[in-house]
Design goal:
Elements lengths: L2 H11 L8 E2 L2 H7 L2 E6 L9 H10 L7 E5 L3 H13 L2 E6 L5 H9 L3 E4 L4 H15 L2 E2 L6 H17 L5 E5 L4 H13 L4 E7 L4 H8 L24 H8 L2 E5 L1 H15 L9 H8 L8 E6 L6 H8 L1
Parallel strand pairs: 2-10, 3-4, 3-6, 4-5, 7-8, 7-10, 8-9
Antiparallel strand pairs: 1-2
Helix pairs in contact: 1-3, 1-7, 3-4, 3-7, 4-5, 7-8, 8-10, 11-12
Length: about 325
């Protein structure tokens, strides 16, 4: 993959996605001892960065298919459902059994059809593959596709428009699509910026893989951040982000909750748990970033209100 792939994706999708704001808070800056900027993809169309990759995939899919399917913890499913309505296509989304009511409802409101399958990504993938074969549907992977990665990388193009120079970039891990696209753009255009992946200590497959220099599998993780419940890095994303990410950071589960509460209190913003992971990693590693200018990618804000209150109150 190259920077040109991301630039082409942005020219394709920018009229249909929001340029999300780069927010900051004086009180949070003072507390953490650094200048923090939040790239606020929780304010994106569909409530997460996933709209970028899904739309770029559909706008470059030339099979003529009008039936698409995917496997998702929720946000990619919403994004695909929204993107399919833009082109008059059908979306069937396989979600985990414990997917939040907010995410399932949103998928349906965007026009998608929801099917539940297991708790782990491989279970959703198996169900999705079977459906696609039986119904001649095109699979839109959450992260294992260069078109998806290129779309997600457009997040960093917008960051650089608003903040041309910064010291560190912190990105939620997960499947690695967002991490791959943004780290590629960052290291290509700003090679001196340090790039960190961010995960919970209980879902640290990317951090372990970066330390080992090869993909490392973990046991099924228990984390409130459902977007990073992966067993190992993606086979397509790993070769990309492993070139550009300097180090993997991890945080405690309770710090994710604290991060959600902190931005609600000082910024009046609602982050979903995965969206708060980059801030949580900064909060658990504050000495690493003293006096620096730090960009945090907020991946999403789709969280059920009852779940949110249970987590932060």
């Amino acid at each position: 993959m190259k920077l040109e792939d991301v630039l082409a994706a942005y020219s394709r999708i920018k009229k249909n996605v929001r340029k999300t704001p780069l927010l900051t808070s004086r009180l949070i800056n003072e507390r953490l001892g650094c200048e923090v900027y939040f790239k606020s993809e929780h304010l994106q169309t569909t409530g997460s960065f996933k709209a970028r990759g899904a739309l770029n995939f559909l706008l470059t899919e030339h099979s003529g298919s009008k039936s698409f399917t995917t496997y998702s913890s929720g946000n990619h499913g919403q994004a695909l459902s929204w993107a399919c309505t833009r082109i008059g296509a059908k979306a069937v989304v396989f979600v985990p059994e414990d997917a939040s009511r907010a995410k399932v409802s949103a998928i349906e409101q965007y026009g998608g059809i929801v099917r539940r399958a297991g708790h782990w990504p491989h279970e959703r993938l198996e169900a999705c593959l079977a459906y696609a074969e039986a119904n001649q549907a095109t699979i839109v992977p959450p992260f294992e596709d260069e078109r998806i990665i290129a779309g997600q990388g457009t997040v960093l193009l917008e960051v650089l428009e608003d903040l041309p120079v910064f010291d560190a970039l912190l990105v939620p891990g997960g499947g690695g699509g967002l991490l791959s696209g943004t780290s590629l753009v960052c290291k290509t255009l700003r090679p001196k910026t340090t790039v960190f992946s961010c995960e919970s200590q209980s879902a640290n497959d990317i951090a372990l893989s970066l330390q080992a220099g090869k993909p490392v599998a973990i046991d099924p993780p228990k984390t409130i951040a459902d977007g990073i419940r992966h067993l190992k890095p993606g086979s397509l994303t790993w070769p990309v982000f492993s070139q550009y990410v300097d180090e993997g950071l991890t945080c405690q589960e309770e710090t994710i909750r604290a991060a959600m509460a902190l931005v609600a209190r000082h910024m009046k913003q609602i982050f979903e748990p995965t969206g708060a992971v980059s801030l949580a990693c900064l909060m658990d590693n504050p000495k690493r970033f003293q006096g620096q200018t730090v960009v945090l990618i907020v991946s999403g804000g789709n969280v059920d209100l009852e779940d949110y209150c249970r987590l932060v109150l």
